[in-house]
Amino acid sequence: MTFIQLIEYDTTQKARVDELMDEWLATTEGKRTASHEMLGQDRDKPSHFVNIVEFPSYERAMANSNLPETQHIAEELASLCDGSPRFVNLDVIREERL
What we know:
The protein is an alpha+beta fold.
């Protein structure tokens, strides 16, 4: 079953967040279990972002979260946020390609 994790956060340091994402992509090459990632920026509140990450399963998502590289990036990201990031874990129960 496909699993989606949403990560919502507010930051005024988008350039540094982008650098962190590039660092994570480089350091987790061949290890990460995420299969697809998208980042959205709120049009009405430009400092608000939603990262949408797709995994083949909840178990694979948890394996990815437990990677030391992911832990490091998560800590760094949290330090760049205004408040704590919000994580939402979703089992995909219906999917339509439109």
